[in-house]
Amino acid sequence: MSVVAGHEGDGHEALESGSVMASTAAGHIAQAEPVKVEGGSLYVVATPIGNLQDITLRALAVLTAADVVAAEDTRNTSRLLDRHRIQARTLSLHEHNEARRADEIVALLAEGKAVAYVTDAGTPGLSDPGAILVARVREAGFRVVPIPGASAVVSALSVAGIAGTAFRFAGFLPERSSARRKAIGALATEDCTLVFYEAPHRVVDSVADLAAELGPDRDIVIARELTKLFESVHRCKLGEAVEWLRGHSDRQRGEFVLVVSGHPAPREAGAAIDADKVLKLLLAELPLAQAVKLACAITGKKRGELYPRALELKDADG
Predict the structure, then answer these.
(1) Which parts of the chain register pLDDT below 50?
(2) How far apart are CA 266 and CA 9, in angstroms?
(3) Where do the domains of the chain lie?
């Protein structure tokens, strides 16, 4: 199943007073309640991941009223602020200077300033800087306020159509195949939905490794360029995903969120698999670690349960 949607649009405009207005679908003007921004508080503000209309009224009001806007990239953020006619003092805070800048922001909060923090796109702290800053601010005793909005993880999950409430966000997988496969293998028995970010130049190799480690029968949703002009969402079996990606060069372009269904539920007790029998067969042909890994995938049991048993069986065989 594949869905393609194209849409780009102007963002909302902020008023100098700190309240904001936006055009509604009916063509009327909706005015948000004024947002009170308190000095000595850090506001963690989500920004659009693509479509500029996905900025919230509250986010615009906070960015308008904040004394300082700390940003992962001040050039990118300046374009967002300019679009909404927001004049703000900006301060760079990225992965290479976060610890130092965090101390500077704590000092600003101690002066009674209100500080907003944004990353280039989406919600700070999710595969983006922000966690160190938030921890430092909390340790210093200042308030941290979330301003929710766009998130690639949540957006992808909402259109995945994979049942279940639990999911595990694993971020970006390692670049090297050996490390990547090891990381995937560690998640093989998780029964929750798995969510990954991936770059275009690695997406084919990563999906191939996912299929190799998790098996070809799980469902995968490949969400590409979410909320952007060439957004696409495709669902298929893991074993079919590489062929689909290679079917057209455009399918390998853009930013990716990969959503993979979790490990299938264990069989009912009446149809339970004999773990000892599986272990004995695998140990006869494979090294211990590999035999245990495959036995976990086959039986649905945890490594901590099967590994000690595998050692006992191996010792018994001499």
Answers:
(1) 1-19, 21-30, 268-271
(2) 47
(3) 13-150, 153-260, 269-316
SS3 165: coil
Task: Give the CATH H-level superfamily of domain 153-260.
Answer: Tetrapyrrole methylase, C-terminal domain (3.30.950.10)
Residue 291 vs residues 263, 275, 294, 307: alpha-carbon distances, Å:
18, 11, 5, 9
pTM score, whole prediction: 0.74
Burial category of 252 from C-beta neighbours within 10 Å (exposed 0-12, middle 13-18, buried 19 and up): middle
| b/e map 261-277, b = 16+ CB within 10 Å | bbbeeeeeeeeeeebee
Tens digits of residue pLDDT in 122-165:
999 988 999 999 999 999 999 999 999 999 999 999 999 998 88
Percent of the chain residues topping a pLDDT of 90 = 69
- 13-150 classified as CATH 3.40.1010.10: yes
